[in-house]
Amino acid sequence: MDFYNEIARKELNNWKKKMRKKPSLVEKASKHVQNKFNNLLPEKYHEIVTSTIKNMTRAVLFGSKYITKKPYENLSLRQREKLVAQKTKAYKTTALIEGAGTGAGGIILGLADLPLLLSIKIKLLYDIAAIYGFDVNDYKERIYILNIFHITFASKSKINDVFYKMENFEEYFDSLPDDIDSFDWRSFQQEYRDYIDLAKLLQMVPGIGAFVGAYVNSKLIDKLSKTAVQAYRMRIFP
Predict the structure, then answer these.
(1) How many CB atoms lie within 10 A of CB 164?
(2) Domain regions of the chain by residue span
(3) 87, 127 contact by CB (below 8 A)
(4) 29-38, 99-108, 141-150: which has the minimum mean pLDDT?
(5) What is the reported pTM?
(6) Nearest by Cα to 117 from 34, 195, 30, 38
(7) DSSP state of 154
């Protein structure tokens, strides 16, 4: 094993420990408050938002397959992760410009940011999967991508559940029916919405919306990329 792989494995092990760590009292209390707020919202609202994000994500996932590169072959881990860093930088620039543009437009354009940013994020994950040598035309890899997305923006209590599935991915996948609808869309949309709600509300404020949109979008892409790197290292290392 070369030095780079050794360092990568140590980083992966530290990330695994972090993912397995149980939520603190503060994290539990914060999630409890968020849940109480969500419970005050009408069920119809949850149904509409769940359906919207589900359909949006399905469109992004199945629409992207025609422009996704084939899996990269015969590359070292160092080479793959150098490419990931380059891709992430390019996507951060795209997300930054998109966030600044929609943020400067106030509420109407601010609302348009959700599907645009979601599309950028999913496409980034497609590219990262291919760089690590995985074929995203495979339904199994699409499920894994959704779990990477989920674990990146989930609360600590939910992270533990999602990480367990990812750590035992083959066993988890074998238990699923061959249908993308089997994914837990309600939890997916609610955790994601809870994570970005405040930032996206600030993005719609005149005067600061453009700055907030650019900053937040760039940070979200960076966080997603870092999670994806560890998630695919977990698939590569025995």
Answers:
(1) 13
(2) 3-28+45-236
(3) yes
(4) 99-108
(5) 0.77
(6) 195
(7) S
